[in-house]
């Protein structure tokens, strides 16, 4: 094992954590930062409706697809080294996105951003496990990481709207420049390196390829299988078949090979499996709701980008407050109870979107996404830690990447799925004021159902665990 800089007086765990939270925040912000910039961007680059969805959701897709592979590479070849490489790539790709001359160039730059971003998230979380060997401190640090990730993902449209008020749409990507430079400058002094070829598992290239292909087919199915996409039915069928066949091959290989890319046995625990499912589906709901809420605030509500950004602030505050409340309640109320209870609150909050209309254009909307973020707080506070704790230490980065994959694929799927569903609803209404009200109604109804399913799944996992504990005690 080679662990560098442990004796440097500047290598303090909490300073290192602060530095690691910077790229975590920027990668999360870039997931949704373009929501409020879409109208200006669409006019400037002459972007059509299909390209709008690609520009907003291709980033989350690629990050989600590659995060597990990047996590495995970090476990094998060095997590700090991978963080520095990713920071350099993210800086360069962000500059390309900021000054993209066309929609095609912007989509390509977003893909490059995502490739680099996929290396940052698992690296930051795995380095936290190095900085905090004690379980109690590590739990607090991971909770801070999760709060940063999910809160700043919600703040993405807010930050984009504020920057758009002062500068052009490309300025939203320049946040990565100072953050990347800070990581590259301070990282060698504040962050430890962990390279242990003896315990790190071999990176299975075939498994990595199968995972990438299966996730890509799944996303292609979502993009082409929904109404109004205009793609041939055969493409959707082929994508679905590919996802099933390749996904089954991937699972079989993980269960039979000596060095799996992902130890799927951790998913045999109901609490872990339900947590990962809930993280994916919560990403679907928050991204889809955020997409339509920000569009509605500017179109039907008639707000400027800056005013819309201010109106969207409560969602990020709700997420941050929810995670902190959950952390404070956890000593007396178990996470197994807080998670399903919070998801039930979020489900009821999403249902409030059906009340949005001419007589109540803003209050139900703001209340809905604020309480939705608040209710998801316990899931975000404990979900990632639960996945990382279930994996062996040598696989910390890829376990962290599993949570990241769930979040980003869920977010990308949410924009594609709820974005398309909402667009179909809006096209069925006569043009004019209120055209996005129908979109919010249908998105709110679908989202409420999704979160209610998550709450029931989490509650069932809790009951199963309790019954198993009683059986063992007897």
UniProtKB/TrEMBL annotation:
- Cited Gene3D superfamilies: MFS general substrate transporter like domains
Molecular function as annotated in GO: transmembrane transporter activity
Q: Which keywords describe this protein according to UniProt?
A: Cell membrane, Membrane, Transmembrane, Transmembrane helix, Transport
Query: Where, subcellularly, is it found?
Result: Cell membrane
Domain Major facilitator superfamily (MFS) profile: where? Answer: 16-462
Q: Report TM segments.
A: 17-38, 58-75, 82-101, 107-129, 141-162, 168-191, 203-222, 234-251, 271-294, 306-325, 337-357, 442-463
Q: Please give, as recorded in its UniProt entry, the membrane topology of this protein.
A: Multi-pass membrane protein
Query: Domain of life, per the record?
Result: Bacteria
Q: Which InterPro entries match?
A: MFS, MFS_dom, MFS_trans_sf
List the record's Gene Ontology CC terms alphabetically: plasma membrane
This protein's name: DHA2 family multidrug resistance protein-like MFS transporter
**Organism whose genome encodes this protein:** Haloactinospora alba
